[in-house]
Design the sequence.
């Protein structure tokens, strides 16, 4: 096992975020001679972080990266990661786990926008809240997340799991507006409340255990079903998009 | 005075009758000359394949429609990003790249002249502004007249000279080059919630048929002695069984011009479909190629599709709306006042899809079954069939039966029973490819006299030198070498300067825009015609005086004045 401890050095008066797509387990198999970017300046890893490596590994699966310090503005950590583990002790910046295909990212604090965007596999656990576009697609794309698992214990912002095409997304708190918009596959589970779920969905399953407010009128009510000890109301739609998705809600309210 | 000498070039220059001679090309001040002084800069082409700069006679690279394709597809902008490098600006985009992206990628492939396939007259300024930022190619714009109210009224009244006069005024005003008819009458009919199914359906209100529009506009085009013929996108694009309509449309073309064709039918692949629906969809390339073989007055271009992601964009509004109803993906449609319209949809052509597989075969069949390469030019209707960066693959497919068979083995298994492609043995040679990618274009567009598409003394010094030694490469077997060679020139020379070298553009560049001003008599000056002026003031959202594109919008304006019969 190899454990890489990275502690972000105080950024002083800098407000420019650091882009750190190089921080993935596989890259540390060949040492710590990596770079990150702050604006248009390329920094050596050691310039931005206090680095310590314990143990060794010859495959990415055996590498764990632990990020400490004020990492709320550290972007693109874990982008394209395929194995191993990243643990973030505090908050993490935008685009964490973009395109990841394997391994695990665990965030003890909150995550900023675009957590796990377009991921294809692996798992992300966020103990705090996640901001907008969690587990979503990107501008204009047809497919968002295609596989893997994202679990958020707190709240999430708007456009959760937009364009979801595969995999599982679980949120234990509330979600914002438009979760599961343009869904075409996969499973989205929201334990709390949300507004306007599953707009324009084509396929897949969206569960809202709490109340779906501003419920869209373009879903057909199929009656109640039992699901894992709960009684939920099943809808199908989005009829406006010839969709065949399933939306299950605990309660719903239409917009007056 | 700048001089350049390209030594030991292995030249194929069909318009000059040169097929594979090793020779030197002398260049002075942007023109090909007989000889240069000893002080000239020397490029040793050492036996490499050298041709006139490539010409694309139908591509969509600039204008409102293309730009709408850009901003409705941010995902396309994520592909093909390149950083700033030397004189090259940063670029992005794959099927609808930024203007610099288009210009650099064309230049690296040896292309020096481009014709934007469809410019709505009202939106011409945008096209010309984007031309300015397409610096490494000379540009021209086909101007849309398919749904022009005044023209349709003149046709209804049987006044071909008035049709010609309106075309003359509009081309001069918007700095257009040629006359484009896109689904003539169809986009106007669509504004009434209809379409025209073929050339005999009348357009609502105006009461004229597409056949009448095509015939009258062809006559008007020849009255004006325009360099290019009418450029036609037939009715009924993309519908099973539409080949009969295409045959009917091509059959309308009289033989009026000894120097070039009288009708240029574009992206004919999309118009060569048999069957009564998608279930019995099949190729009808044979009857179309047979008709073209019998009619020297017709030139077509392929409109080849290649598998992968791209964006469809056309002035054919109803067609794009039908495509939207088929795919139910994002889509845009647009109306251009008294003139035309447009639509845009991103698509993916898939090998696993039978219809797409048949379409792929049809484009190749049209090229292979048309006997004269001068009559079937190489295009993808960029980006409708595929982005132009994939032209070299098409060259590979046309030159190698083995490559076609290898590709054929990967497409939908039922394709074989619906297309004649597997029975075609023809493999094109270097000379035919040179015709299909530059010489044929120059002749069809009528720009060989302006020094385009050939390397005779006096011609523009637009030269493409490809790293291919044609006596060492067997295109039939080494098709990958052909593809690689045509993808990246050793040198691209534009107006006597090396502009691209081994995949890198080395200068900022500055293009010319070619446009046409037909000289008409006072009686036919539409700017003074009370009825035309009144119609303009009444229905357009812009004033007639604000409508013409000022010459300041043109970078290196190159006006072609024509003597007309008006």
Sequence:
């Amino acid at each position: 096992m190899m454990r890489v401890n990275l502690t972000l050095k105080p950024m002083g008066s800098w407000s420019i975020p650091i882009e750190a797509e190089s921080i993935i387990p596989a890259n540390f198999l060949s040492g710590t001679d990596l770079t990150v970017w702050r604006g248009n300046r390329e920094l050596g890893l050691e310039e931005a972080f206090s680095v310590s490596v314990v143990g060794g590994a010859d495959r990415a699966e055996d590498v764990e990266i632990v990020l400490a310090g004020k990492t709320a503005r550290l972007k693109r950590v874990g982008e394209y990661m395929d194995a191993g583990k990243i643990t973030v002790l505090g908050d993490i910046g935008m685009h964490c786990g973009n395109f990841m295909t394997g391994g695990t990212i665990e965030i003890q604090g909150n995550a900023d926008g675009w957590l796990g965007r377009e991921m294809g596999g692996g798992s992300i656990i966020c103990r705090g809240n996640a901001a907008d576009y969690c587990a979503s697609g990107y501008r204009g794309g047809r497919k968002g997340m295609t596989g893997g698992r994202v679990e958020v214990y707190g709240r999430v912002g708007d456009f959760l799991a937009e364009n979801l095409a595969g995999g599982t997304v679980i949120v234990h708190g509330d979600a914002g507006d438009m979760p599961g918009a343009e869904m075409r596959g996969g499973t989205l589970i929201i334990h709390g409340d949300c507004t306007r779920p599953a707009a324009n969905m084509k396929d897949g399953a969206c569960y809202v255990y709490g109340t779906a407010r501003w419920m869209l009128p373009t879903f057909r009510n199929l009656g109640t079903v039992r699901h894992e000890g709960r009684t939920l109301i099943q809808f199908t739609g989005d009829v406006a998009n010839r969709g065949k998705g399933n939306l299950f809600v605990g309660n719903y309210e239409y917009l007056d | 005075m700048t001089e350049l000498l390209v030594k030991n070039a292995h030249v194929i220059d069909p318009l000059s009758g040169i097929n594979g001679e090793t020779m030197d090309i002398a260049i002075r001040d942007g023109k090909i000359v007989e000889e240069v002084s000893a002080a000239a800069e020397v490029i040793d082409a050492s036996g490499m394949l050298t041709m006139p700069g490539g010409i694309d006679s139908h591509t969509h690279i600039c204008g409102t429609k293309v730009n709408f394709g850009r901003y409705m597809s941010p995902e396309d902008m994520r592909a093909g990003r390149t950083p700033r490098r030397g004189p090259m600006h940063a670029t992005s985009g794959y099927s609808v790249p930024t203007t610099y992206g288009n210009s650099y990628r064309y230049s690296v492939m040896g292309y020096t002249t481009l014709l934007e396939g469809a410019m709505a007259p009202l939106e011409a300024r945008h096209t010309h502004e984007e031309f300015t930022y397409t610096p490494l190619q000379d540009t021209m714009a086909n101007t849309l007249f398919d749904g022009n109210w005044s023209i349709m009224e003149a046709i209804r009244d049987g006044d071909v000279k008035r049709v010609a006069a309106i075309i003359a005024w509009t081309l001069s005003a918007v700095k257009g080059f040629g006359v484009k008819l896109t689904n003539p009458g169809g986009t106007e009919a669509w504004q009434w919630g209809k379409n025209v199914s073929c050339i005999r359906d009348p357009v609502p209100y105006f009461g004229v048929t597409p056949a009448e529009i095509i015939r009258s506009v062809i006559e008007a085009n020849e009255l004006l002695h325009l360099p290019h013929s009418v450029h036609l996108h037939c009715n009924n694009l993309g519908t099973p069984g539409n080949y009969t309509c295409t045959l009917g449309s091509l059959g309308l073309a009289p033989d009026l011009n000894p120097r070039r064709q009288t009708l240029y039918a574009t992206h004919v692949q999309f118009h060569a479909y048999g069957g009564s629906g998608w279930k019995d969809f099949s190729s009808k390339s044979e009857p179309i190629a047979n008709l073209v073989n019998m009619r020297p007055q017709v030139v077509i271009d392929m409109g080849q599709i290649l598998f992968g992601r791209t964006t469809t964009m056309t002035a054919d509004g109803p067609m794009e709306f039908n495509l939207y109803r088929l795919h139910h993906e994002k889509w845009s449609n647009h109306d251009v006042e008294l003139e035309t319209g447009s639509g845009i949809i991103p698509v993916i052509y898939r090998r696993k899809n039978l219809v797409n597989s048949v379409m792929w075969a049809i484009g190749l069949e049209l090229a292979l079954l048309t006997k004269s390469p001068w009559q079937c030019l190489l295009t993808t209707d960029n980006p409708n069939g595929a982005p132009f960066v994939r032209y070299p693959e098409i060259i590979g497919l046309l030159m190698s039966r083995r490559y076609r068979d290898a590709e054929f083995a990967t497409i939908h298994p039922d394709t074989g029973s619906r297309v004649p492609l597997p029975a075609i043995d023809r493999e094109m040679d270097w000379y035919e490819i040179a015709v299909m990618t530059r010489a044929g274009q120059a002749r069809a567009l009528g720009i060989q006299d302006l020094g385009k598409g050939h390397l005779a003394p006096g011609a523009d010094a637009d030269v493409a030198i490809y790293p291919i030694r044609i006596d060492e490469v067997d295109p039939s077997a080494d098709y990958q070498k052909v593809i690689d060679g045509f993808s990246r020139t050793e040198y691209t020379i534009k107006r006597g300067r090396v502009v691209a070298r081994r995949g890198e553009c080395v200068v900022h560049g500055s293009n010319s825009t070619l446009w046409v001003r037909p000289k008409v008599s006072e009686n036919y000056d539409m700017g003074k015609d009370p009825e035309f002026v009144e119609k303009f003031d009444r229905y357009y959202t812009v004033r007639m005086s604000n409508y013409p594109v000022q010459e300041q919008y043109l970078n290196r304006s190159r006006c072609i004045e024509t003597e007309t019969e008006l």
Remarks:
- The longest strand of chain B covers residues 3-13.
- DSSP finds 17 helices and 24 strands in chain B.
- Chain B touches chain A at residues 72-78, 328-329 (CB under 8 Å).
